């Protein structure tokens, strides 16, 4: 895929008719992350993203050069002490495989950053798996720094 100079990425909201593609894209994404969820969980997650679209989750395609180059799921988390203050959270973020390493990720994140700013968000946060060194390099290049380690005790 040739990189067209000056091409930007536009966020396009996922609609219910997109559910099959969303499911397939997220399935590839779990594979990239190396954490395959149970198929039943995955199916429910896609349904929930569609149900909660525009409420607790904002699911967008990244549209660039007339094609869907990636997808992202964004969240607006009110600060507990100052609920009028919103913290933006990037819940899912992926550039589809043939489009990687051509600057589409940077442009998709730029579009997400503009969307967050338009919603009045200051700080942005996200989780990244300790095994995902590629994404760690990507987020570091975007200016993100390690804020804390989240620990999990499996029950
Ligand atoms: C992480 C990901 C979104 C990056 O998207 P991308 O379109 O390939 O990234 P870009 O081409 O915009 O790269 C921007 C910068 O990030 C860094 N970067 C991106 N991919 C990298 C890699 N494989 N290795 C090292 N640095 C990398 C570089 O600094 C790069 O700038 P450069 O190309 O000028 O060196 C993409 O690899 C992806 O979708 N991975 C699978 C899903 C995933 O891990 N998502 C993140 C979950 S937290």
Q: Mind explaining what this structure looks like?
A:
With 155 residues, the chain is α+β, with helices and mostly antiparallel strands. Helix content is 34%, strand content 24%. The protein contains four helices and five strands, in the order βααβββαβα. It has a five-stranded mixed beta sheet with strand order 1-2-3-4-5, covered by helices on one side. Strand 4, helix 3 (104-118) and strand 5 (124-126) form a beta-alpha-beta unit. The longest helix has 15 residues, at 19-33. The termini are far apart. Residues 29, 32-33, 93-95, 100-106, 126, 128, 132, 134-135, 137-138, 141 line the site of coenzyme A. Coenzyme A is lined by residues 29, 32-33, 93-95, 100-106, 126, 128, 132, 134-135, 137-138, 141.
Defining traits:
single chain, 155 residues, alpha+beta, five-stranded mixed sheet, globular, binds coenzyme A
List the helices and strands and how they pair.
Blueprint: E1 9-13, H1 19-33, H2 39-51, E2 58-64, E3 67-78, E4 86-95, H3 104-118, E5 124-126, H4 133-141
Parallel strand pairs: 4-5
Antiparallel strand pairs: 1-2, 2-3, 3-4
This protein binds coenzyme A.
Largest beta sheet, briefly? Answer: 5 strands, mixed
List unreliable stretches of 5+ residues: none
Work out the helicity level: 25-40%
- Trace the largest sheet across and list its strands: 1-2-3-4-5
Could you tell me the mean pLDDT? Answer: 96
Terminal Cα separation, in Å? 45 Å
What is the β-strand count? Answer: 5
- Pattern of helices and strands: EHHEEEHEH
- Class by alpha and beta content: alpha+beta
Radius of gyration: 16 Å
Question: Which ligands accompany this protein?
Answer: coenzyme A
Counting H and I runs of at least 4 residues, what is the number of helices?
4
The gross shape turns out to be: globular
What fraction of the residues are assigned to beta strands by DSSP? 15-25%
């Amino acid at each position: 895929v040739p990189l067209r100079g000056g091409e930007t990425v536009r966020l396009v909201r996922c609609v219910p008719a997109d559910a099959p593609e969303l499911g397939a894209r997220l399935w590839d994404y779990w594979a990239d992350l190396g954490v395959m969820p149970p198929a039943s969980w995955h199916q429910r997650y896609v349904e929930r993203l569609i149900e909660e679209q525009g409420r607790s989750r904002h699911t967008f395609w990244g549209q660039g050069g007339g094609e869907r180059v990636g997808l992202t799921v964004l969240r607006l988390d009110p600060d507990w002490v100052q609920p009028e203050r919103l913290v933006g959270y990037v819940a899912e973020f992926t550039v589809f495989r043939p489009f990687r390493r051509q600057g589409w990720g940077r442009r998709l994140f730029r579009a997400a950053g503009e969307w967050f700013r338009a919603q009045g968000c200051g700080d942005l946060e996200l989780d990244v798996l300790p095994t995902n060194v590629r994404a760690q390099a990507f987020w570091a290049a975007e200016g993100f720094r390690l804020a804390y380690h989240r620990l999990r005790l499996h029950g």
